[in-house]
Amino acid sequence: MIPLTFTLLVYGGWLLSQGPSAAFANFLAQISVALTMLVGSFVAGGTALGGGAVAFPVMTKLLAIEPATAKVFSLAIQSFGMTAAALTIIFCSIRYYSDVVWRALLGAVPGVLIGLMFIAEHLPRLTTKTVFSLFLLLFALTLLRLHFTHKGYKESSQLVKPYLITVVGFFGGIASGLVGSGADIMVFALMVLFYKKELKAATATSVLIMAVTSIIGSVCNAFYLDSITPEVTAYLLAAIPVVVVGAPLGAYVCARVKSGTLLSFLLLLIVLEVGFTALEWIK
């Protein structure tokens, strides 16, 4: 009931803030961004990749949008989509690790603020893209390792060296401030490779971490850095009605589907994204 209420409130606010005619006109004008987030929100809700994992490479490489704009948009749209997915996880009793969530956020929250306020503006455009590609490679290697070696494992019931979660969350938060994603990917990798946590519960945990990280980052962008430009706003208003449905749907479906098909799809996305970045370096 709570996830549905959230979605209805978002739709009501979306229509009232613009008026039905303007809302649909902007949606059609920014249809490429909306379609991108149709896929991105599903991936964000059901995997340890944030919506930025789809939005950032598509916007920067196919739609020719500046990385700084794509990063601000990625954080902002995840504030809606991943919050909707997080509510679905919590209120539909999808398993997650609450102790990992709060430990990771102790690092991720200051990390994303540091990344946004002190580091992002000093990184060149291609460097920003490369950082994102490296995080996707980390995620791909994690998935492949799990696929070939994770069968028949026994889940660890204890958090050895729990401070590692906060440390990894901190550096993941910095990455989130640079490219719109990172805290979810890094904590997910730590959970399944080091702590031997169950894959689907670790995925749900990463969604909760990125939801909060995205909200904090977006508040900083809006009220401190003043980086929510009219361009970003237009993209957001086109994508919001898509992501508040797509992300919860992704969380629900991917908690119940076999992992093989999803793994292949994610690896395809990662190969394409890293390949495009490599081509830019060659040029």
UniProtKB/TrEMBL annotation:
Keyword Membrane: yes
Keyword Membrane included in the entry's annotation: yes
Pfam families referenced in this protein's UniProt entry, alphabetically: TauE
Membrane topology of the entry: Multi-pass membrane protein
Gene Ontology cellular-component terms listed: plasma membrane
Keywords noted in UniProt: Cell membrane, Membrane, Transmembrane, Transmembrane helix
Transmembrane segments: 35-60, 72-94, 100-119, 131-148, 168-195, 207-226, 232-255, 262-282
Listed InterPro entries: TM_pro_TauE-like (IPR002781)
Compartments where found: Cell membrane; Membrane
Family label: Belongs to the 4-toluene sulfonate uptake permease (TSUP) (TC 2.A.102) family.
Record protein name field: Probable membrane transporter protein
Native source organism of the sequence: Pseudoalteromonas ulvae
